[in-house]
Amino acid sequence: MIKSFVLLNESKIMLTLFSKNYCGLCEEALYELQSLQSKQKLNSVNLPKFDIEVIDIEQKENKVWKEKYYLDIPVLHLNEFPIMKHAIDPTRLSELLVEFDGISQNK
């Protein structure tokens, strides 16, 4: 069962996973995100730090997200920008994290 929570890594990058209970694709997506975050923490991949937030679209306070994403979950945002839906591609996500980190450091 997936509940709303945040895994903090003290970073400027927030990955938000829109999810719901009893969703196999959502559980796979969360596993991919946590696996990538673990690899980043162990320095086995060269990625910027990122935090993970999970939002359960079925909770009453998330009605807007349920209306928007009900047929598309899991949906992943990088900060406020939607970047993936239906599944997480770890290779593409890694590329996006590096690209976003490079852009934000140049500001």
List the helices and strands and how they pair.
Layout: E1 5-7, E2 14-19, H1 24-41, E3 51-56, H2 63-69, E4 75-78, E5 81-85, H3 90-105
Parallel strand pairs: 2-3
Antiparallel strand pairs: 1-3, 2-4, 4-5
Briefly say what this structure is.
The protein is of the alpha+beta class and about 110 residues long.
Features:
107 residues; alpha+beta
Descriptive report:
By secondary structure, this protein is of the alpha+beta class. It has three helices and five strands, in the order E-E-H-E-H-E-E-H. The chain has a five-stranded mixed sheet with strand order 1-3-2-4-5, covered by helices on one side. The radius of gyration is 13 Å and the shape is globular. The model has no long low-confidence stretch (mean pLDDT 87).
What is the beta-strand fraction? 15-25%
Number of helical runs?
3
Low-pLDDT windows of residues: none
Rounded average pLDDT? 87
How would a crystallographer describe the biggest sheet?
5 strands, mixed
Structural class: alpha+beta
Order of helices and strands: EEHEHEEH
